[in-house]
Amino acid sequence: MGEYSLTEQFALIALDGQSSKRFTASKKVAMRGVAMAGVLEKALAEVARDQVSMYLKKNIQEIRKKKKKDYLLLEQEVVRGLLEQNALSKEPDLLGCDINYQTAGVSMWEYKCREEVYIRITEGVRAEILEPGEVCAETVCLLYLFRECGCMHDLFSIKEQEHVAQRFVELRVQDVLYRAILETEFHSGIQNACAAFVWQKHKLFRNPYLQGVALAFPFFDRRSAIFIDTIVLGADVSDRRAAVMRFLREKGHSCEEALLDGGYLIKIDNRYYKACPYAKSYRVPVQGVELRPVYR
Amino acid sequence: MSRQRTLEKIMESDYVSIGELVRLTGSRYSTLKFYTEEGMLPFEQEGANLTRRFPREEAVRRIEEIHRLREAGMGISGIKEIL
User: Is the C or the N end of chain A the one with fewer CB within 10 Å?
Assistant: First the structure.
């Protein structure tokens, strides 16, 4: 694995799974974190320890003033470097295969961090904070950025999050620099509330009963319900499944059939989906298959 | 405050932390912790809070061997006997 700067490490984790073409609310939160990572990197390298608090406060004001075009420029700059290092790639987004997007000619792409790099960064951070012993400045900064961008629950279980919170208290007491970093807030309350709402909604639809509701009303959990039309006369269930897999492979997704929990699932880009026969009513009814995520 | 060691620095040192072992081998933290607690990885403890430190060369060699045996379809108990 190559060496990545603090900004690059955070960008790799924060941009993984984000749309590469659209500036979504979650990407805005991620890019704000990337901008803050740049500030922290400079603070660690160039600023005297007792001046860090002032330096961060001053720069946070500038980050808060940044507009969409500033973040887009920053994204281009960071992503270019990571693409060159082959740590990040742009992959087709599964939602782009949905009949509504596909027939409208909307192409959807998302960033994907190389799995090996993702594991090394996230597991390295987990190991350092969850084990007793010294925690390095880069790890404290990454954890701080994860906390401010609301992605702690992606990396730590509830029990681990309690342990991390306790370690934060210890780190604040131990070092004046860590105190300055951990006590600085750069997130926007509204953005975090939006992110928390989306996360809670997502968590709610992982409930087996509500998965059925999401299937009947895909509007509630739009990104998880992908409808693909497979009109093949005289086709049975396995023919439909084969047609869906052929279509997904043509669109650049890796997919294979998997027999799990007594039923057939489709493994698409390392995630499991159940393929359910479904029909949508447009001017004419369209028969097809609805892909529903299976949370394991 | 300590700074993150570069991979070059880690490769020069005799002992590494579990976080550095994760960076070196690309294994998951929970996996290495399990191997450590099962006595499959050698380590020493130091300091007041008994921080674990691993002899780099031997630990990396062990992890590679465990991965190789796991890929060959061997179970943990079998691997422990071999090690």
Answer: C
